[in-house]
Design brief:
By secondary structure, this protein is mainly alpha-helical. It folds into 2 domains: 161 residues, Orthogonal Bundle (Cytochrome Bc1 Complex, Chain D, domain 2); 84 residues, Cytochrome c-like domain (Cytochrome Bc1 Complex, Chain D, domain 2, Orthogonal Bundle). 51% of the residues lie in helices and 7% in strands. A hairpin with a 4-residue loop joins β1 and β2. Bound molecules: heme C (HEC).
Length: 257
């Protein structure tokens, strides 16, 4: 019955098919109890601690700040503004990509964006900005302006067999409605704080996930071809969504269903 209501609201048969695929991810009472418990003691804290160690072995905060050309004492505020244009890369990059740059600078093997180590290090580095407000500046330069534009295009482009876009489920006029049991999240809302809360521990996956991997999970669910991590399109999508959530507090690791 609930599903029918949503389907009527969406006026999209394609989307109704996807609703069924999402069913297994709904939150039961038992899940809610577990969520409350994990809020007290987020399992991903361990991963963040491991990330600190891995990052320390790789380069450490001092060398990292130097590579980025910022004072170590300004690092937290600087990190709160990612994705951003960085001079050494000559392009707009994510935090994970700066860790790759750091590895290359230190002449160490460059960790893959898909690797577990990278998820942990990204979470640690972002946690250095905990308490700061997400401060992405999409008007900072023409690179950022271009990436915002591209990100919006990627967000709105209908793709895949069902002709869905991110916007089909996350547009302003549809958020708050439910796909089966799950509310469609407003990615910019204070409660969601999407950019400030990822990497987050996902209960449905029993592991920590980065924001760009979370995008890929939605692409999977909605049968959209997966955009590769680190590609221009993926970074642009992160710029666009982070900008929606600007001003929200950074709290890593997050906890999500
Ligand atoms: C078929 C509907 C649908 C489509 C299409 C879709 N999403 Fe989602 N998305 C959801 C639902 C439902 C959730 C919440 C799932 C949950 O709470 O477990 C969600 C959650 C998210 C979250 C996590 C929000 C949080 O809690 O921080 C992000 C980020 C996200 N989607 C991004 C995207 C992007 C980017 C795209 C396009 C590539 C996309 N989604 C396409 C349904 C969709």
């Amino acid at each position: 019955m609930r599903r029918l209501t949503v389907c009527a609201a969406l006026l999209s048969a394609a989307l109704c098919g996807v609703l069924n695929a999402e069913e297994k991810m709904s939150m039961s009472d038992a899940d809610k109890a577990m969520y409350a418990e994990l809020l007290e003691n987020n399992p991903a804290e361990m991963d963040v601690a491991e990330g600190e160690q891995l990052f320390g072995d790789l380069i450490g905060a001092e060398g990292y700040a130097k590579m980025l050309g910022v004072n170590e004492k300004d690092l937290a505020a600087y990190l709160a503004g990612f994705p951003r244009y960085v001079e050494p890369a000559k392009k707009v990059v994510t935090l994970s990509q700066t860790i790759q740059m750091a590895a290359a600078t230190a002449k160490k093997p460059v960790p893959k964006l898909e690797s577990k180590e990278m998820v942990k290090m990204t979470a640690y580095v972002k946690s250095l900005a905990n308490g700061e407000k997400t401060s992405i500046d999409v008007k900072a330069n023409k690179h950022m302006e271009q990436m915002l534009k591209l990100g919006q295009q990627v967000f709105e482009e209908r793709r895949g067999g069902r002709g869905l876009s991110c916007n089909s489920c996350h547009s302003a006029d549809i958020v708050g409605q439910r796909l089966r049991m799950q509310p469609l999240p407003d990615l910019g809302a204070k409660e969601t704080a999407a950019a400030g809360t990822w990497p987050a521990y996902r209960m449905t996956q029993s592991q920590m996930v980065t924001l760009d991997k979370r995008f890929q999970q939605c692409m999977n669910n909605a049968l959209l071809a997966k955009i590769p991590l680190g590609s221009r399109e993926m970074v642009a999508l992160e710029v666009f969504i982070t900008n929606k959530t600007k001003g929200n507090e950074i709290q890593i690791p997050g906890l999500k269903r």
